[in-house]
Design a protein that fits this description.
Elements lengths: L11 E3 L11 E3 L22 H9 L9 H10 L3 H4 L14
Antiparallel strand pairs: 1-2
Length: 99
């Protein structure tokens, strides 16, 4: 155990024209091995790890200013770049307009 609390960065998007609308539905982009759903079986690929997922774990302990790459990641996800989307476990916007 490293910490007693689990802090994580969660990336979400919405198809709503007004993201501030209380009725906007926000959908989470899942990572392949980052902790997320507590009921999901843990990812185990020994002795390797998914670097992006590992970086997301550390980013949760700092600010986005200390992890500028998160802004670039979000931009690439918004642009629906295939290379970036291949790093994700799920894309709730597949086959739909970008968030």
């Amino acid at each position: 155990s490293i910490t007693k609390e689990r802090t994580e960065v969660i990336l979400q998007g919405t198809s709503s024209l007004d993201p501030n609308d209380p009725a906007a539905v926000w959908e989470e982009l899942d990572f392949k091995c980052k902790p997320g759903n507590l009921k999901r079986r843990p990812c185990f690929i020994s002795p390797y790890h998914y670097r992006l997922d590992w970086l997301m774990w550390f980013a949760a302990f700092q600010t986005y200013e200390q992890n500028e790459w998160i802004i670039h990641l979000a931009g690439k996800l918004l642009a629906q770049e295939e290379e970036t989307l291949s790093l994700m476990a799920t894309n709730p916007f597949a086959g739909r307009a970008p968030p």
